[in-house]
Design brief:
734 residues; alpha+beta; 28 helices; 8% strand; globular
């Protein structure tokens, strides 16, 4: 009890007098709010301290922890429901008081209006993760539920900012042109645009209706995601039914000789890739395709309808038009045209891909086995890659997690000129690690922090993502550095004592997600609205959504390079590097079955744009469908793989409920431009990891974040207009 009490006192601080928080939000208090509530100082170090070269991350397994710098964010597993509720109420109350101060500054200076509002947004954003993170990571279901409610309340609070007519009037009276510099003018223009996009111009009655709809959308999306995270569905198999799969990775079922397989990727994918029996794969595929559809189908449909209603209240033709306007693509028509052009090119390879898989199925199961089904794709894709010399089961032995983790961190440090140091920070679970990020040269100051939370746990977010913990922003000489966490669900060590061995897809995913980590931590912005963020968090900010994946997708390209594969690989028993023949085969296999993969993705992206393009019924291929049947129709038609009867896979599709609505196309859009960026590194062969070019990438793509438009960042790095040609060449269609 005493330990818990001490921890909570450090988390929440002493009670503040009425109005003290508002004064801090308004910039009059000497110490920022975030450092009072959401960050606890370490008395033994300071923010200017830098790690010695001996602590540079090369092998995290043996690394000692350094003292945490004073500005290290702190989180605790001991947070309670009451703590979450109190902090939520404090943030909402005092943030609102800060906006009241902005209204009182009407007719005053830029600093009295825009400055106060931007400062309040920064501090409230930085404080929010203490409320919202437990919904993704905490072990206690009641705390997760309280955190979800808190996130909904904070999302409503930030949304309400842009409906306050008095604040809008105060800002408009001053104008963005009164800003003291270009970055301030850009942030000011962003605020004014968000007021217009959140209905500030609506009548008071319509605005109430609009905000009520937004609140319902947020609650439904939160409930949708919580249902998937909390879902504990398992499929029970006998060991014989799991022939081909390492059964030691699974919990024992209801009787000896049985195993329980869950629906998270580390459980699901080994069965889909390696289980020799078709019926075994079919059972888990059916369970996954129907996951949560009894509770989430109606939520999904209601959210789609509400989004359409809100968009039309603001004068847009559709939610897709509303979402695309501030993005690089700018219109649904341009996004759809991009997808359909690539679909035409991909479908030229689709028939060959499916024919290759069918040959393998016929050879293994006999000529009467029937056509390729949903549950056959992963299994025979693995088998097809084996014909190219890629043995995924064997390759996995060369990617033990601890080695891969250490080398990914080392590669990023070398490429970007950084030093990572594991620090002794308080964290929310014993599996979590915290690192500071510093310049390798120059002042060697702390640039930010990241956390690694890599293993699945009951109730934890079941996908992979990087979750912002605080944005970068500053007020005068007082700077807040960015922080984030890489939330993973990677394979864990097995019961027979083997280390965690990663599938290559997991290695690729880890490398990709760490690119997001770097984008977050290295962003330099005076205002939080320009810092790295995405819609998983309630606060506003971040780059254009269809640019969000560009930086990490560019960096992901390195994982396929032979010199990088040599560094990442180390056999868990012998310590040998992946043989050159395997490296060559793996690198060459990158484009294997790309016709199917692209067609499948594009079918899902077109579904997203279509259902967010207006209310159904949706006409496709000469027929009309509701939103449920339309998903199965379009994915089946465009991928030539039958859908699973009675399923609605959108009921467990996180993306459309977490900010990628009318934006799923952005992954492919980003990949296309990322290929152009990477072509600059390819031109440096044999030194593909050229540190000088890496530093340029850091300065022109990662650091600016939303202070510069995506198109301008591309041109600043490339020195020319961006091109799709490198991507088309990779696809083999140019």
């Amino acid at each position: 009890t005493m330990r818990t009490t001490r921890t909570r006192r450090r988390v929440w601080g002493s009670p503040m007098p009425a109005g003290a928080f508002a004064r801090r939000l308004c910039g009059t208090a000497p110490r920022p709010y975030i450092r009072h509530l959401a960050s606890r100082a370490s008395s033994s170090s300071s923010s200017s301290s830098s790690p010695s070269s001996s602590t540079r991350v090369m092998s995290t397994a043996t690394q000692q922890r350094a003292p945490a710098p004073a500005n290290t964010p702190r989180f605790t597993a001991n947070i309670t429901v009451a703590d979450v509720e109190k902090l939520t109420a404090d943030i909402v109350r005092e943030y609102s008081a800060a906006l009241d101060a902005c209204e009182r500054g009407a007719g005053g200076s830029w600093e009295d209006t825009f400055g106060v509002t931007l400062a309040a947004l920064g501090r409230a954003s930085a404080a929010s993760a203490a409320v919202t993170l437990p919904s993704m990571t905490h072990s206690d279901a009641d705390v997760r539920k309280a955190s979800t409610r808190g996130k909904d309340a904070l999302k409503a609070m930030f949304d309400d900012t842009f409906t306050r007519v008095g604040v809008y009037a105060a800002l408009k009276a001053v104008g963005a042109e009164a800003a003291p510099d270009a970055e301030a003018a850009r942030a000011s223009a962003y605020l004014l645009r968000e007021f217009e996009r959140k209905g500030a111009a609506l009548s008071a009655d319509y605005q109430k209706i609009y905000m009520r709809k937004l609140g319902e959308i947020e609650e439904l999306c939160s409930s949708f995601c919580a249902a998937v995270n909390e879902d504990d569905t398992t499929v029970e198999y006998t060991d014989e039914e799991l022939e081909g799969v390492d059964v030691n990775a699974y919990a024992v079922g209801s009787s000896p000789g049985t195993r329980l397989v869950g629906l998270i990727a580390p459980d699901l994918m080994p069965v889909m890739q390696f289980a020799k029996r078709s019926e075994t794969r079919k059972r888990i595929a059916h369970a996954k395709a129907k996951q949560c559809q009894d509770v989430n189908t109606e939520r999904f449909l209601r959210v789609v309808a509400l989004r359409d209603e809100c968009a039309k209240m603001l004068g847009y033709a559709s939610h897709a038009e509303y979402m695309l306007k501030p993005k690089m693509a700018s219109t649904p028509e341009r996004a759809e045209g991009f997808l359909r052009d690539l679909l035409e090119k991909a479908r030229g390879k689709l028939a060959d891909d499916l024919a290759d898989l069918q040959k393998l199925k016929d050879a293994e199961e006999g000529p009467d086995a029937g056509p390729i089904q949903n549950w056959d794709v992963s299994y025979y894709s693995r088998a097809f890659k084996a014909t190219l010399g890629v043995d995924e089961a064997k390759i996995r032995e060369y990617f033990p997690l601890e080695h891969v983790k250490g080398q990914i961190l080392a590669i990023y440090q070398e490429l970007l000129g950084l030093t990572f140091t594991r620090v002794d920070a308080e964290v929310w679970h014993e599996d979590v690690e915290c690192y500071s990020v510093c310049e390798t040269e120059g002042e060697k100051k702390v640039l930010g922090f990241f956390y690694l939370d890599l293993f699945p746990r009951p109730g934890k977010y079941t996908h992979q993502c990087v979750y912002p913990l605080r944005p970068s922003f500053s007020e005068g000489d007082d700077a807040t550095t960015a922080a984030c966490v890489n939330i993973g669900n990677l394979s864990k060590p097995t019961a027979d004592g083997k280390p965690a061995l990663l599938r290559f897809r997991e290695v690729e995913t880890f490398f990709h997600e760490f690119g997001h980590v770097m984008h977050c931590v290295l962003s330099k912005s005076k205002y939080s609205v320009h810092a790295w963020a995405w819609s998983a968090v309630p606060w506003p900010g971040g780059v254009e959504q269809d640019f969000l994946e560009v930086p990490s997708m560019m960096l992901e390209n390195f994982v396929w390079q032979p010199e990088v594969l040599r560094q990442l690989s180390k056999h868990y028993a012998s310590g040998e590097t992946l043989p050159e023949s395997e490296i060559d085969a793996l690198s060459a296999s990158r484009g294997a079955l790309e016709g199917y993969a692209r067609s499948r993705f594009i079918s899902m992206a077109l579904y997203d744009l279509t259902v967010h393009g207006g209310q159904g019924p949706y006409e496709f291929d000469g027929k009309k469908y509701d939103a449920v049947d339309f998903y199965n129709a379009i994915t089946e038609k465009l991928s030539d793989i039958p859908s699973i009867e009675g399923s609605f896979a959108c009921a467990s599709w996180f993306h459309l409920m977490m900010g990628y609505d009318a934006g799923y196309f952005g992954y492919l859009w980003s990949e296309a431009y990322a290929a152009d960026l990477f072509s600059e590194f390819e031109a440096k062969r044999p030194n593909v990891m050229d540190p000088s070019l890496g530093r340029k990438y850091r300065d022109t793509i990662l650091a600016p974040c939303a202070t510069v438009d995506g198109d301008a960042m591309l041109q600043n790095f490339l020195g020319r207009e961006a091109s799709l040609n490198p991507f088309l060449k990779r696809m083999g269609v140019l």
